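Predict fold of CpaF family protein; 446 aa.
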Amino acid sequence: MSNEIQFADDASSFIHTQQFHDVKNAAHEHLLTRIEELGAEFGRWSRGAINQFVDLEIDSFVRLRHIPINESEVRLIAQALTKELAGFGPIEDLLNDPAVEDILVNGYRDVYVSRHGILAKMPVRFTDNAHLLRIVRRILAPIGRRLDESNPMVDARLPDGGRVNVIIEPLSLDGPIVSIRKFRKDPLRPSDLLANGTYNAEISALLEAAVAARCNILVSGGTSSGKTSLLNALAFHIPEPERVVTIEDTAELSLNHPHVVRLESRPGGFDGAGRVTIRDLLRNSLRMRPDRIIVGEVRGGEVLEMLQAMNTGHDGSMGTVHASSPRECLYRLEMLAGFAGFQGTESSLRRQIANAIDFIVQIGRLSNGRRRIQSITEVTGLSDTIIATQELYRYEPFVDEQGEEVDNWVSLGIHPHSPKLARFRQVLGGAGPFEGGFERDGGFRV
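Predicted 3D structure, encoded as tokens:
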């Protein structure tokens, strides 16, 4: 066991030396020359065949040039070059790590990852910015997106469902900046969020009832606060017979539902030709006989179409908004509607918002990386031209005797006002907490 630990330490230290990068770069040039000699035949090789080819070539390369490295170091260089030729180089292991949520590359030297909401710098690096750009172009190749000086920003969906954003010079001053957001292959279910402590059983029951009773819900929060994961979990409660249309800039939602139509906007070409916005898709979706419309993120003129849809028979629709509180969420809707050219008065806009939205679920990421629902707020109507709200639950953690922070949600003792939740209120009015729920077919159980 001690020998294995010693080998791991030696390997780790060698990978971070300048000698490792110098030998790897020289060996890479040698491999490229050999690949040119093989021509197009190399492109049809499997990963196993590439691995065998690299092992043989690197062994020969080291012996002929009398490079002073041992067998284990030769193996490390061969592994790195296999990832270089057949995969995504230094970040391949991070892409394959299920615990990694985000990979953030700030130029060729600095690579950070987020695990469980906590950012940490990784001891991996690229050789130079040209090397980083080569790997980025390999990531973008299957998507068919162009990245050059005339198009220096790319935001795209990866084939595995993740999302990549790249910005290069001249807009980026320190080399290519790459942000990769990974998504779980198996989306979190409500029971998973409950087990993770994102909310408690009472809030879970309320959200289940609100979704099944076709309440319109906005999930509000900051970047990487868990909005998409929560939206995915909420959609689990949508009854199976209903038709759901999802609309996103970059497809991130993966709903656990049998009848989902997924739509994604298109940025258009260099001159803007062929651009299709979320607003265009929302207008078109109304002709697709949706029972519910889910907007991945509301951040533009589509807010008007979303409000109209919610007010004209598409109850049960949902979306996310970047905002720091429920009140800020409402202000943001007003601001976006104004930017979109809303022609009515401020009072009529607020009346539309108050009639459309039933609940705002505020979620946040704590300093320790945990994601928690901060509050559940109900929109109750319009009062003196101000949108009236009532907070049903609030997150108020406390510190126990051991000095540990304990999750705690405080019920403010207010029952939901919405007539859609009349049956839910009847259960609340009985003895004890809510222990019922809605079946996937829309039926109620107690």
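The longest helix spans residues 18-38.
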